[in-house]
Amino acid sequence: MEMDVARTRSARRGAAAGRYSAAEREGFRRGVTNVVAIAMSTALRGHISELQRNRSRLMPAGATTTLRGVAPVPMPASARRAPATELGAALGARVTATDHGELLVWQKTISEVWSHGGIVARNLWAALDGVWTRPQAPAGLEALAQADPARIAWLDIESAGFMGRPIFLVGMMRPQQDNLVITQLLATDYSRERALLAECAQAMSDLQVLVTFNGKCFDLPFLRDRMAYHRVARELEMEHVDLLWPARRQFRGVLPDCRLQTLERHLCRRMRPGDIPSALIPERYHEFVRTQEASLIAPVLRHNRLDLLTMAELSARLLECAGVCDAEVPPAHSADVE
Question: Is pLDDT at 33 greater than 80 in this prediction?
Answer without folding.
Answer: no
